[in-house]
Structures are given as structure tokens and as C-alpha cells.
Amino acid sequence: MAGVNFQSVSKVFGKDVKAVDDLNLEIKDGEFMVLVGPSGCGKTTALRMIAGLEESTNGDLFIGDKRVNDVPPKDRDIAMVFQNYALYPHMSVYENIAFGLRLRELKGTFWQLTHMAEAKVKKEEIDKRVREVASMLAIESLLHRKPKELSGGQRQRVALGRAIARKPRVFLMDEPLSNLDAKLRIQTRAELIRLHRNLGVTTIYVTHDQVEAMTMGQRIAVMANGVLQQCDEPETVYNSPANKFVASFIGAPPMNFLDGVVRGERVEIGSMSLGLPAASPVRKNEGLRVTIGIRPEDIYDSRTASSVPVTPDNSFEGQVDVLEKLGAEDTVYMVAQGHNLTASIDPSARIHSGETVKFAVDIEKMHVFDGETGLAIR
Ligand SMILES: Nc1ncnc2c1ncn2[C@@H]1O[C@H](COP(=O)(O)OP(=O)(O)OP(=O)(O)O)[C@@H](O)[C@H]1O
Ligand SMILES: [Mg+2]
């Protein structure tokens, strides 16, 4: 096992496509790290550099203590599940999964010939491992099939199986669950977390899905346009996003943003006015332009809110435009003094579309960003 360390690593394609821009990121030995960000932000490129499939333009990349910039892929002891995974079409599912294991054994062919009995044990070990992995991914009944006889989701599980059958120093996974249906995705997500807990192999997992990132990562690294925005534990990224981009990317429905100006201990947002968090350093920064961030889950129906007091500092009237009933909560799209806001409300509030409701915000959970740079001010 080994950690992975990016030191000022960049990758430029052609003249000016900066796929990864001066990335500094240390993935600890045994850690489950998620790289998350929108399409095109450089996630796959970062993974491919670890695998050695892409040469970095600048910087140093370490696996364990070793600088690997010049180490060929086959010598890096890494297993990768690609975004566009490829299975061997002429091989059965069983053979596809066993392939990586056999490849490792091949080195010892001569040794095997001279130690037939032990070679048999190896074969049995491979068989055991293939069946273990197949059972974990619920593909036992497909072991004899060829890839073309499988659905997209089944193929994806075989590709995953092929990677996890081995026990490499590092697992790289590029959106390995994207072709699975919702139920299977949640199930496989849990399997991967369990697998990591059992094997403890350093895993770098790429996704554009913030829910996957939040639920799977011990730490998550949020990227945008090739640049690392923040890397921390999921709770920290959610509770203390470094900037507006991270704040909008992590959390669903996304955070509400309101542009305003500081007036004393309040922020004036057009005709609306809210108190600022007690500890906010922008208080009394008269005239400072800020962007206020309010998560939908921090807005309450004042009629049923028990966890926040309703005061003139934290409440406003909103007209409910659209109401989405999700079962466990209602998503309320409202217009409040000309601003469009989204709130996640307890269904017991029994909100109806069209009605005007007094809402209350948990002011202490409000986020304040610099109006110009978008950086969090706290
Ligand atoms: N071989 C290449 N040649 C030129 N540009 C490339 C190449 N590979 C990737 N890029 C560009 O580099 C940027 C990052 O691409 P990358 O594949 O790393 O994104 P990603 O975060 O994995 O996106 P997605 O979520 O869509 O898979 C994109 O702008 C992409 O167009
Ligand atoms: Mg990608």
C-alpha cells in the first residue's frame, strides 16, 4: 500500500488546455479520497497521471516515497476502473475477472511448472477470489457469459470486479457506478466502502456526483477548471465551503445566494434585510458588498419551526411558487421580495403552492462570501 502525492502537478493539452492546474494534493496511505467536480474539470486527467497513462507537463508525482513521473504504468502496481471501461470481448466474465490475477501469476510460470501442487492451490485461490468478488457484485450467475451478452450496468460491475479481485497498492476508480440503476448504485456504493474498510487499500475515486462524494469519501477534493478548490472531510466541506463554487456544488438542492450590502449588524438584500451571524467578521463593515449563502435546509416555515426563534432579524415572507413533495421533505420554490429561493421544509408544515408563508432562516448557519472574489469570509 502507498499514499499518492501531487506536488504542483499540471497537465496542459496542446497549447492552452489546462486540464490540471498546479495541483497540490496528498492522498494518505490507506485513505479513500474522492475527486469531485463538474464535467471537464480535470478529474480523469488527474487519475490518468497517477496510473501513468498521461504524462504531467509540470510538477512531481509520488506513489509512496517514490517519484513516479518516469515509471511506466505496469510498474506502478495500480488497479484502475476506467470511465470507459473495456472488457476483453472474447473472454467470459469469469476469465475477465481472473485475468488480472493470472497475469500476476504468469511471472511465475516456470515456478508453477516445477511446483505443480502449489500451482493448483494458486488456481483454487484464483477461483475462490473470482467467486468472492462475483458474489459481492451480484454477478455470480453471469460468470460464463461474454461481455456482449451483458447490460451496461452488468459490464460495469465486471470491470469493477476485475479491478478489485487484485489487491494493488492503489485503486483508481473513474465514475465506476455511472451505468448502474439507482438502487444498484447505492448498494454497490456501500460494497465499495466495505471493501475499502476491509482491504484498507488507498483509493482515489472520481465522480461528478456530490452525493457519492459526500457519502463515500473520507476526504473529498473539489475541483473546478483544473484547479483544486478545497480538500477536506465531507462535513467540513459542507459546513465551511471555501468559496461560492464549492458551496454551490456540494449540497442538494443547491445553496441559495443573495447579493447584499452590510449595514451595521445586518445585511441589506434589496428590500430584504437579515441579521448577520453573531461571529461574522463582516459585521459593521459598513457598505461591504457580500454574497449571502443560505442552504435550503436552513430555511423553516415559521409556523412550525421549533429549532429557530422567529425574529425580525431572520424572517421574511415568501410566496410559494412550486412545491415538490419528496416524501421525507418538501422542496419549496418561492419568491421572497423579488428573490427566488429554495427551501427544504418538513412536510408536516403542510405548505401549499400559491400561499404566502413567513419563513425563518437559521442565521448562525448563514454563509458570507466576498461579493467580488466569492471567497468565504469567516
Ligand atoms: N487528450 C486530450 N486532448 C486535449 N484535451 C483533453 C484531452 N483529454 C482531456 N482534455 C481536456 O481536458 C479537460 C479535462 O478533461 P477530463 O477528462 O480530465 O475531465 P473530467 O473532469 O474527467 O470530466 P468528465 O466528468 O466529463 O469525465 C477538458 O477540458 C478536456 O476537454
Ligand atoms: Mg472524466
Question: In brief, what are we looking at here?
Answer:
The protein has helices at residues 43-51, 93-106, 109-114, 116-136, 152-165, 182-199, 210-216, 234-239, 244-249; strands at 4-13, 17-27, 32-36, 58-63, 66-67, 78-81, 170-174, 202-207, 219-224, 227-232, 256-263, 266-269, 272-275, 289-294, 299-301, 315-325, 330-336, 339-345, 356-361, 367-370. The chain is α+β, with helices and mostly antiparallel strands and 378 residues long. It folds into two domains: 4-248, Rossmann fold (3-Layer(aba) Sandwich), CATH 3.40.50.300; 253-370, Beta Barrel (OB fold (Dihydrolipoamide Acetyltransferase, E2P)).
Beta-strand segment tally: 20
Architecture of the largest domain in CATH?
3-Layer(aba) Sandwich
* CATH class descriptor of the largest domain: Alpha Beta
Low-pLDDT segments, ≥5 res? none
Explain what this protein looks like in three dimensions.
- The protein is an alpha+beta fold.
- The protein has two domains: 4-248, P-loop containing nucleotide triphosphate hydrolases (Rossmann fold, 3-Layer(aba) Sandwich), CATH 3.40.50.300; 253-370, Nucleic acid-binding proteins (OB fold (Dihydrolipoamide Acetyltransferase, E2P)), CATH 2.40.50.
- The protein is 27% helix and 32% strand.
- The protein is built from nine helices and 20 strands.
- It has helices at 43-51, 93-106, 109-114, 116-136, 152-165, 182-199, 210-216, 234-239, 244-249, and strands at 4-13, 17-27, 32-36, 58-63, 66-67, 78-81, 170-174, 202-207, 219-224, 227-232, 256-263, 266-269, 272-275, 289-294, 299-301, 315-325, 330-336, 339-345, 356-361, 367-370.
- The strands form four sheets. A six-stranded mixed beta sheet has the order 6-7-8-3-9-10, sandwiched between helices. Strands 13-12-11-14-20 form a five-stranded antiparallel beta sheet. A five-stranded antiparallel beta sheet has the order 15-19-16-17-18, with no helix packed on it.
- Helix 2 crosses helix 4 (116-136), helix 2 runs parallel beside helix 5 (152-165) and helix 4 (116-136) packs across helix 5.
- The two termini are 38 Å apart.
- The model has no long low-confidence stretch (mean pLDDT 91).
- Adenosine-5'-triphosphate is lined by residues 13-14, 17, 19, 37, 39-45, 83, 208.
